[in-house]
Amino acid sequence: MRETWVAGAATNRYGKMAETGREAGSRVALEAIRSAGLEPKEIDLTFVANAFGIAEHQAHVGPLVNTALGIPEVPSATIESACSSSSAALHEAYVHVAGGFADAVLVVGFEKLSHLDTLAATSYFAIGADYPYEAHNGATFPGLYALMANAHAQRYGTSEAELGAVAVKNHANGALNPHAHFQKPISPEIYRASPVVASPLRLYDCCPFSDGAAAVVVTARERFPHPAAEPLVVRASVRAGSIGDIQDRSTLTALPATRRAAERAFRTAGIEAGRIGFFEVHDCFTIAELIALEDLGLFPPGAAGRATVDGITAHDGAHPVNPSGGLKAKGHPVSATGVGQVVEIFEQVNQRAGGRQVPRTETALAHNVGATGSSCSVHIFGRR
Amino acid sequence: MRETWVAGAATNRYGKMAETGREAGSRVALEAIRSAGLEPKEIDLTFVANAFGIAEHQAHVGPLVNTALGIPEVPSATIESACSSSSAALHEAYVHVAGGFADAVLVVGFEKLSHLDTLAATSYFAIGADYPYEAHNGATFPGLYALMANAHAQRYGTSEAELGAVAVKNHANGALNPHAHFQKPISPEIYRASPVVASPLRLYDCCPFSDGAAAVVVTARERFPHPAAEPLVVRASVRAGSIGDIQDRSTLTALPATRRAAERAFRTAGIEAGRIGFFEVHDCFTIAELIALEDLGLFPPGAAGRATVDGITAHDGAHPVNPSGGLKAKGHPVSATGVGQVVEIFEQVNQRAGGRQVPRTETALAHNVGATGSSCSVHIFGRR
Q1: Is B276 on the interface with A (CB under 8 A)?
Q2: Set of chain A residues whose Cβ sits within 8 Å of the Cβ of B375
Q3: Phi, psi (5° rounding) for residue B150?
Q4: CB A128 to CB B60 under 8 A?
Q5: Which of B152, B315, B332, B367 is catalytic?
Q6: CB B21 within 8 A of CB B56
Q7: What's the ipTM?
Q8: Which domains are present in chain B?
Q9: What pLDDT is stored for residue B52 in this prediction?
């Protein structure tokens, strides 16, 4: 396998986009290519993630992005894996480059849903789960994650204060991130006063619907040895699956796909969770961050809530988690999310993260989940 | 690169499915795995193609197929490239196996649209083109391909009789294929009597909307050296792109993406078009088959129509094209189509094609187009 880098990265500010997805995606893609010190004509292959292009009446968007970049002849494909679409696309890019099939691959994810009403947006999201068994019976994502939160509370005593600590931390980080959808800190009081969406999850336990676009460029070290910025070395790129509908799983307090992917990723990279410098994890709901940190092995089952309350996962804590603000505060433009996590890691490694800069950037981990965990991607990055 | 095989293949009968896409896809996937002499637990990775899952309220369908197969832990992703979705998925499978990332990869494509009315189905199809420039202004696929047909006629004198000869040939082949949507031959008189859809294209110039499912299993020779059936050796797996909207292209009488992909595929495989035993090409409209054969270099520009009239591309002709019946008569369940072409090649190579059996099966080529050719996949297969 060839040494494979993330050599460039860019994102827009998540939130509400006036431009179309393809416009935002093409612009951010160009920025990512330039940040690597490359030109579009050096790109061999493009992977796009845009799970809900139907909301803009547009599928097959790779040729449109490539045409906008002036490289229409370059092959492209769209990768979909619900909320883990762009990390799945990143994995494909890694395989092409590490395997010697391409030297420079563009991965761009974008989503635009803000022009829809909330019911329509929720309906689109819900088709990422097992529709006939879940959404068709009224169980959309807030309800499904609420079931996990209740099971976790019953088994480990996870408290409202612990869930709230995740929200407060991630909003504090988002307030320091100019790319974040929400850039205002919240207090525990504000969290507790927010309405219940699906008990025990309150409004501030839930990530928002966001528009957004993010892109990275994946390159072969041997072909492009002198990038314009400090690259991320891909130490592990692993994906795993799980039963789709949560009713058929043997546990509601863990995501089996995270455990599988993490175990293989740590083995491949030869590192343990405790030695990772910082984490970007999939906190679509506060409970999801706690479960992720336990599945990844950073904390024992049931211990992530206490660690969060104690500040261990703050951006200046011993084990920073979601310094970007996470899905919770940076936002969750579905198909931008996975690549957007890597953009944050790229900015941290290049010491461009301003007030949210984490102390240790030698290694970092990105964890991105599809639906309620029926797909999961784990990427571990190191330094040259 | 490791020698990579298509070691198993299966399809259902295209047409109208009573079962859901995921049910049909899972069943056909299991048949494909068994036809390779494997069990589901030997699958390392699943790629699904299902471009219009939205029509069944279901995205992220890989985990659902894997769960049905009893292998929920296996990673999966959905690949979309409009009508070339499943050949794009096959290419990803090839890269994973040839590059040593996986030993056995399932590729399954399926589509179900027959429960929608024709306008809704056409609207879904249309988002595969460049929506704001084309479908939004009323140019859906029949109109776009009619523009190409008119340009081709103006430049080369392509006649109604030549277009009709493609339809008559492919319906004759479909009549011999138990998997085909249409299994009735048509006469030139029936062709000429059919109504105009978009001049010069008549009803019988157009492929149907079909439901359907098709699957193949891609394996590493070194890991599974004794398949249950005669495998296809992947000699070339190449994809290319082109400008999305046809108004911006320099030609309407050729698909630049086909030319690019074919040139590289022939070079990789070390073979010329004239020496290929038979072809499955993307005949979404009759004109598309003629343009494909010219772009692939089997005939000079403008000569494919005459060759078709002369019977050269009949299943017992010198250069058989679409012995399956093609999209035209076998049918076009969008995301099953690309893999379905390979199923036909697998059946031909294993001498299971009955009355449509072609004489020379040492090499074969599959050509699959996304939209009006903004994406194209070319696969060349050989024998052990």
Answers
A1: no
A2: 60, 62-63, 75-77
A3: -65, -45
A4: yes
A5: B332
A6: yes
A7: 0.98
A8: 4-116+209-220 (3.40.47.10)
A9: 92
